Amino acid sequence: MSAPSVDGFVHRFVPGGAGSAPTLLLLHGTGGNEDDLVPLGSMLDPAAPLLAPRGNVLEHGMPRFFRRIAEGVFDVEDLKRRTLELADFVAAAAARYGFDPARVVAVGYSNGANIAASLLLLRPGALAGAILMRPMVPFEPEGAVAPTLAGVPVLIAAGRLDPVARPEQAAHLEQLLRERGAEVSLHWAEAGHGLERAEIEVARAWLKARADGLHRPPAPPFNEPSASPEASSSSTGSPG
User: Catalytic amino acids?
Assistant: First the structure.
C-alpha cells in the first residue's frame, strides 16, 4: 500500500512562529476554501502553524468535506471515507512540513466542525484537541462506549438561536464526547449560525490555557458508524 499523499487536498500551510504552539487544522464550512479560516487561526494563536485543506466534495459548486444524499441526510459511507482520508492527509502533511503530528488541534466551522467531530469519533489518535464551532452530531456511534478520547480537550461553540446546528445537537454531541472521556467545554452564545467576535475570544483563551498540555491519545480500534441526519453547513458567518 502506498503512503498517504499530502496532495490529496488543495490546501494552504502557514508555518508557525517561534515556540511550540500546536498546529491548527482549519476546516471551513460549506462554500468555503483553504483561505477562509486562516485569519481565524492567526487570531486564535499567532504563533501556531496553520494547515487549511479545501473540502474535496462539491455540492452545487460549493466545496464541502463530505457528501449528503439529500438535504438533512448524510452519505455515511462517504463521510467515513472522507474522514479517514483527512486523517491520512494530516499525517502526510506533518511529514512534509515538519510539524508534530501529536499536537494537532482541529478548528472547524459548521460542515468543517462536523467532519472534525467525525475525526474525533472515528480516528481519535489524529487529534490532540478540537474547537467545534456550530457542530452537529455526525453519526450515532454503535457498540459499547469506551474512553477512547480520555483527556482530549474539546470546545463546542453553539448558538442558542441556531436554526441549522440546533442547540439539542450541540448538547447531544457534548454527551457523546464526554462518554468517550473527552474534557468538553460547551459555550453558548445568544446567536444563530454565524459566529460572534466574543466567541472567538473565548476560543482563543481556551486554546491558550491548554496549549502546553496538548498531546494526542493512543489510537483505538475503528468503530463503525450508523447514519444520522445533518442540516446544511456554511462558511464562516453565513448560514446554510
Answer: 110, 162, 193
CB 22 within 8 A of CB 214: yes
Tell which CATH architecture fits domain 6-226. Answer: 3-Layer(aba) Sandwich (3.40)
pLDDT tens per residue across span 147-206: 789 999 999 999 999 999 999 999 999 999 999 999 999 999 999 999 999 999 999 999
Q: In what order do the strands lie in the sheet with 183-189?
A: 11-14, 50-53, 23-27, 104-109, 129-133, 153-159, 183-189
- Within a 10 A sphere around the Cβ of 191, how many other Cβ atoms? 17
Q: What is the pTM of this model?
A: 0.88
C-alpha cell at 136: 452537529
As a whole number of angstroms, the distance between CA 112 and CA 126 comes to 15
